[in-house]
Specification:
UBN2 domain-containing protein, 7 helices, mainly alpha
């Protein structure tokens, strides 16, 4: 502001000196601080963060391997939850992650999970080491076993269908034999009936 004829009027930008520029910078900082203090977005970041953490915690606790799911797919879903936690500055110890994965496996994995608990222990396994261990088990033992069960199921189904087709054919043949037998008996009955009655008149 400058004084002209006992009146204060604003200065133009060309008339600003170093002191005026310093005042403007201080005003801008003060306005920014006030804005940040009253802005709901910045005011609620801690609340939003806590809400996200609560949601992820529930998702983490409810995490289970899906029936028939591959190890890689399960680990991808699990990693997304853990990465979201990291983005919110929340972490879990490696042994807790390993323990959670082992508890989340479906029943066909139970023997492998028990073997890891007993032989290695959850403290001595990294999450990547566990993934590799489970992938090896999946490809060498579990998948061939499941394939055998599927083949047996297919063989039983094929056998059942063949038996049903044969029995269906037998039913048709049996019905045909009965029809022919009835026809034969009718003709026989008619022929014998004529002999007893004598020749037609």
């Amino acid at each position: 502001m400058k004084k002209v004829d006992d009146k204060l009027i604003p200065k133009t930008e060309d008339e600003f000196d170093a002191e005026d520029i310093k005042k403007i910078e201080n005003y801008a900082k003060a306005i920014n601080m006030l804005y940040c203090a009253v802005n709901p977005k910045t005011e609620g970041t801690d609340q939003v963060r806590e809400a996200k953490i609560d949601f992820l915690t529930q998702e983490y606790e409810m995490f289970r391997m899906k029936e028939g799911e591959k190890i890689d797919d399960m680990f991808d879903r699990f990693s997304k939850i853990i990465n979201d936690f990291h983005a919110l500055k929340k972490t879990y110890a490696n042994k807790d992650l390993v323990r959670k994965i082992l508890r989340s496996l479906t029943p066909e994995w139970r023997s492998k999970a028990d073997a890891i608990y007993e032989s290695i222990g959850v403290s001595n396994v990294t999450i990547n080491g566990l993934r590799g261990n489970l992938k090896t088990y999946e490809s060498t033992i579990l998948t061939p076993s499941l394939d055998e069960q599927k083949k047996k199921g297919i063989a039983l189904k094929a056998t059942k269908e063949t038996v049903e087709e044969v029995s269906s054919d037998d039913d048709n043949e049996f019905g045909l034999v009965i029809k022919k037998f009835h026809k034969f008996m009718k003709k026989e009955f008619e022929r014998k009936g004529r002999k007893h009655d004598g020749p037609p008149k």
